[in-house]
Amino acid sequence: MTTPRDLLIVTLDVAPIRPLERGDLSLALAGAELIDLVGTEALTIEDERIVPGLCPPTGDRMLDEAAASFVRQPPHEPVGDWLWRRGRGLSAAYLDALEEAGQITRRRHGWLPLRAGQAVPVDSPGRRHATDRWASDEPVLATLAAAIGIREEPAEGAAGAVGDATVTVLAAVNDAVMELEAERQRRAIEEAAYDNIWRGQ
Predict the structure, then answer these.
(1) 111-122 mean pLDDT
(2) Nearest to 31, CA basis, from 181, 165, 178
(3) What are phi and psi of 126, to 5 degrees?
(4) Rounded Cα distance, 195 and 133, in Å
(5) Cα 90 to Cα 13, 22, 59, distances in angstroms
(6) 18: which residues sit within 8 A by CB, 6+ positions away?
(7) Helix axes of 22-39 and 90-100: crossing angle, nearest 10 degrees
(8) Strands (E), the chain
């Protein structure tokens, strides 16, 4: 199991404190990929930019795809830019990957047999690993979960428990999620103003 897979299982198992947005989850999954790849020395982060390493195969298709997407020529890509690029549609891709691996199933409605149902984690070693990691307040998983509204706050002392590169990625994920929320609010205000104009005519 990888951090992105653990995070996705947690989001399916734990009730969020606010509605979980698919875009937020995709950004957090991309950040989780970067953190795992930092751990394999597939990259370093210099001046908040991703500098690829040798990128040996990780044994995980999604992580290998993430590593293959790095800009390998200087000037290297900023972490935030990569999160937006990699994150597009990433939550759906991870749901498909977990379903293919037998880690989740779809709860179907008897009266809607052709409609895809809610994703539900199956009882598996992968789910138990994610659950144990969650229960232990592991700093990376807890901080990513806090960024997308699965919990109130990161684990206490999380910043001091991880390396500088991981702190940079976690901060970039948080910034990207806040930016996305600000964009949602801006659009909601514009749509409300537009509706008010039509009502006033």
Answers:
(1) 66
(2) 165
(3) -65, -45
(4) 46
(5) 19, 9, 19
(6) 149
(7) 70
(8) 43-46, 49-52, 104-107, 118-121
Q: Residues for the chain: how many in total?
A: 201
Residue 29: closest CA among 145, 126, 136, 120:
145
Using DSSP's 3-state secondary structure scheme, residue 111 falls into coil
127-186 pLDDT tens trace: 999 999 999 999 999 999 999 999 988 766 666 668 999 999 999 999 999 999 998 888
Can you name the residues that pair with 118 across neighbouring β-strands?
A: 107
CB-CB contact of 38 with 67 (8 Å): no
Omega of the bond leading into 113 within 30 degrees of 0 (cis): no
Q: How many CA atoms lie within 13 A of 48 on its CB side?
A: 10
Q: What is the Cα–Cα distance from 1 to 139, expressed in whole angstroms?
A: 17
